[in-house]
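INTERNAL AUDIT FORM
Audit reference: QA-55
Scope: verify that the stored structure record matches its stored sequence.
Auditor: D.O.
Record contents follow.
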Amino acid sequence: MNTSVRTTTRLLWAGLRALLVLTVVCGVLYPLAVTGVAQGLFAHRANGSELTSGGKVVGSELIGQSYLLPKRNPSDATEPARPDLRWFQPRPSRGLSTNTVNTQYRLLLSGATNRAGDSEELIRWVTEAKAEVIRDNSVPGHPIPPSAVPPDAVTSSGSGLDPDISPTYARLQVNRVAARNHLPAERVRALVDAHTEGRTLGFIGEPRVNVLRLNVALRALTQEGTGKP
């Protein structure tokens, strides 16, 4: 009996020591080491790829965000969102659920619409989105033909939070953005070209434009002649 108690005690003490050692190594030392390496070598990425404008964090370059006008009646939940056409607009965002707390986004969980190609609801969404893109981006002397609207202008991504748009969609918005901000279209077009990224490693993915980075640069451009911070 005494032998059995001693054996049990020894096993429990060994298990407790293993628990303490693994807790210190895996729960303290390893996270500190990984955090230190990340902060030392990849601080921007480790901190959420934040972008700043005017000394303030305005978002993450990894997550798409909306550019909307304030509601005329904030208490009216049925009032439709209106895009702020001074800015380049991202892809449509349709996810798995709505978020009533953070109303800047229509997403509670990221995800695709999960509609089939022949879904009447999806066809209606695309048709309405295409009409809005044509209406919003047609300016005097520069009408937008339906054939010029790219797929990413009327469909959401798999996550619904894609931070990038195609160069085609960015260039389609140039004349509208230039007119709204009283800028030469050539300067806005050059801004888009400067923020167009090629395929990763030359062959992965598609050319893209990060909307947040582009709008931060646009804000700086619009303030060049005003002296505002």
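Auditor finding: record pair retrieved intact. The mean pLDDT is 86.
Action required: none
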